[in-house]
Amino acid sequence: MGAEKNLTRRVRAWLDEKVGWHMKVAGGPLQRRGIPDIVGCHAGRFFAIELKAPNGRTTLSQEVEIARLIEAGARVCVARTLAEVQQFFSAEAES
Q1: Which of 42, 61, 74, 84 could form an SS bridge with 34, CB 3.0 to 4.6 Å?
Q2: Residue 79: what pLDDT?
Q3: What's the pLDDT score for residue 66?
Q4: What is the pTM (predicted TM-score) of this model?
Q5: What's the CA angle centered on 36, arms 34 and 38, to 5 degrees?
Q6: CA geometry: angle at 81 spanning 72 and 7, to 5°?
Q7: Please, what's the b/e burial string for 39-78 (b: 16 or more CB within 10 A of its CB; e: otherwise)?
Q8: 19 neighbors 89 (Cβ within 8 angstroms)
Q9: Residue 11: Cβ within 10 Å count
Q10: What is the pLDDT of residues 61-95, one digit of tens each?
Q11: What CATH number was assigned to the domain covering residues 3-94?
Q12: Sequence-ordered list of residues with C-beta below 8 angstroms from that of 82, at least 6 positions apart, any chain
């Protein structure tokens, strides 16, 4: 199993237990490019998470969509580890 796929599985299991509603965004040729891998709602606020392998980088289309989501008020993170996702939600709880 690839690093990003393994990370996705671990993050989704943690989200199931700790956060609540979320979904994996299906990719493919007919889908809009750049949408983050996981979207959901937590504590009444939309969030999006782009998951990357340890050396992975966001594409231009991902950067554009992330900027649009942030401008619309969403919380967004790019994460390479489960700990980064956990920190993302921990920071939300503190604000």
Answers
A1: 61
A2: 97
A3: 97
A4: 0.90
A5: 155
A6: 95
A7: bbebeeeebbbbbbeeeeeeeeebeebbeebeeeebbbbb
A8: yes
A9: 23
A10: 999 999 999 999 999 999 999 999 999 999 876 65
A11: 3.40.1350.10
A12: 7, 10, 11, 14
